[in-house]
Specification:
Oligomer: single chain
Distance between the termini: 23 Å
Order of helices and strands: HHHHHHHHH
CATH architecture of the largest domain: Up-down Bundle
CATH class of the largest domain: Mainly Alpha
Helix content: 55-70%
CATH superfamily of the largest domain: AhpD-like
Strand content: under 5%
Number of strands: 0
Number of domains: 2
């Protein structure tokens, strides 16, 4: 039984309404994820703040942001976020070979992005208990402790969205349905 509501601006709790209006202005539509999260104004506010922080205040470029988001989305088997972030990656002009490698769990086109991907998988699978050897590979690829900590911001965002979508069975938004994905 799915009891999660897909809110509209009109049906949303009062504190969520302005955040949903902002989502419509930003995306040209109300993303179904935001419509579900609106039930908890605190969740929607936190999600949007973490997303903004990760996307605009970390040192990752568009390719690296995509690697962080999609590695976690694929590992968590998120039926909603994988197609959404495929579309987002296209809009950010990320090379399709990167998005396809992430979606298909194949090698990334360069060693630095592969090292980032491998570190993210270690964080998710090993719950942050990273061996010194794995950390050294990450550092040798050109990343730093700042990058490690920045990954955790993206991971926090993805836990919020992936787990919401699993529970709510959020329908993929129309613009992203062409990027449908199955684990």
């Amino acid at each position: 039984m799915n009891t999660f509501k897909l809110h509209t601006i009109e049906s949303a709790p009062e504190p969520s309404k302005s955040m949903l209006e902002e989502s419509v202005k930003t995306f040209g539509l109300l993303p179904n994820l935001h419509a579900v999260m609106a039930e908890s104004p605190a969740m929607l506010e936190a999600y949007k703040a973490i997303h903004n922080t990760f996307a605009t205040k970390t040192s990752f470029n568009a390719e690296e942001l995509t690697v962080v988001w999609q590695t976690i989305n694929v590992e968590n088997e998120c039926h909603y976020c994988v197609p959404a972030h495929t579309g987002i990656a296209h809009s950010m002009k990320v090379d399709a070979s990167i998005t396809e490698a992430l979606r298909n769990k194949t090698a990334l086109p360069n060693a630095k992005l592969q090292a980032l991907h491998d570190m993210i998988l270690s964080i998710v699978r090993d719950r942050g208990n990273i061996s010194e050897e794995k950390m050294q590979v990450f550092f040798d690829a050109g990343y730093s402790t700042k990058h490690y900590l920045d990954i955790l911001i993206g991971y926090a965002q993805k836990i919020m969205s992936n787990y919401t979508n699993h529970a709510a069975k959020t329908e993929v938004d129309a613009p992203f349905q062409k990027f449908a994905w199955n684990s």
